[in-house]
Amino acid sequence: MQISLEILADELKVFESRFREAVKSNTPLLDRIMRFIVNRKGKQLRPMFVLLSAKLCGTINETTYRAASLVELLHTATLVHDDVVDESLERRGFFSTYALWKTKISVLVGDYLLAKGLLLSLDNNDFQILKILSEAVRLMSEGELLQMEKSRSLNLSESIYFEIIKNKTASLLASACSAGAYSTSQDNSVSDKMRMFGEKVGIAFQMKDDLFDYGNSSVGKPTGNDIKEKKITLPLIYTLNSLDRSSRRECIYIIKNQNRNKEKVQWLLERVKASGGIAYAEQKMFQYRDEALNILHEFPGSPVRNGLEELVRYTTDRAY
Fold it and tell me: Tens digits of per-residue pLDDT, 10-68?
């Protein structure tokens, strides 16, 4: 991400100060939790996509910084709520908010972050930016609920899988790129084009995450974790669809009833590798990446476009 970081060196500093300001609270407990969250934030990929998309289409301004802050506020809120839903004690190698402050406070912290995001836009009349991002929140909720519904029955087709990840993961990145582009261009057609670009990047990003489950445990996600949680991802869907009826039944039995048995899970992972499920998912992931790059290349060549291309390639080439 070297090119992107160099291009955005000054803008990221401004964004960080704006974001810290955006999450401040007069309530001592809440302010302490906000400082904890800010100090442990991740790679800031989504704000970088906002800023680079904005720069691709014009000159970064205050609306752009508010859009980047809104994206990060919404993303952080969903992570805090996700940790409650998953009862996860760890986030990015540290204790999660849920681990330290438990359910009630974590839910309220997530609500607070959502409210701060809404007010940040409304107080500054950023109505179109708020509309773009509100759509993402709706889609993320629908995607999460659809995944829960389908994981119970294990009735998941390839088209449903893509609907889930498009809504659950890609919608926020799509909205980040769309909001960034709109903040500098004020042009709905350009904003829509960047939304489609971000959606394809987001799908490729989630597919990379899903593929980590079939790698080794050093990537920061335990091998077979999705199977333990009965999350059916593309490598497994492809495998189940390629098996005869009795083998398919055996695999489904493991997912439903033996998903905590390490040997059985390992056997299933090997079955997926042998069936070509991983190779198929990788091919699909690179297809989405290349479709995103084709959209990006409709814009004139520039260092900013190079920075965005670098970020796109990072999503599929990263090691964790």
Answer: 999 999 999 999 999 999 999 999 999 888 777 899 999 999 999 999 999 999 999 99
Please report, for the chain, how many H helices and E strands are present, in that order.
Answer: 16, 2
Q: Give the span between the Cα atoms of 98 and 82, in whole angstroms.
A: 9
- 214 neighbors 260 (Cβ within 8 angstroms): no
Q: Which of 47-61, 106-120, 146-160, 236-250 has the lowest mean pLDDT?
A: 146-160
220 pLDDT more than 60: no
The label of the residue with tokens 């691709």 reads: 56
- DSSP track, 232-261: --HHHHHHHHHS-HHHHHHHHHHHHH-TT-
The two structure tokens encoding residue 15: 């964004």
Only one residue has tokens 């829509």, namely: 192
Residue of 60, 311, 307, 67 lying closest to 185 (CA atoms)? 60
> What is the distance between the alpha carbons of residues 285 and 209, in angstroms, rounded to a whole number?
11
SS3 154: coil
Would you give the DSSP letter of residue 230? Answer: T
Alpha carbons 165 and 287: distance in angstroms, whole number? 15
* Higher per-residue pLDDT: 229 or 115: 115
Higher pLDDT, 320 or 169: 169
CB atoms within 10 A of CB 54: 28
Q: 106 and 33 in contact (C-beta within 8 Å)? A: no
Per the listing, tokens 């300001």 go with 21
Structural domains of the chain, ranges and CATH numbers in brackets: 2-88+96-212+296-317 (1.10.600.10), 216-275 (no CATH)
Residue-wise pLDDT tens digits, 142-191: 998 998 888 777 777 899 999 999 999 999 999 999 999 999 999 999 99
Length in residues, the chain: 320
The secondary structure of residue 182, as a DSSP letter, is H
Under 8 Å between Cβ of 106 and 114? no
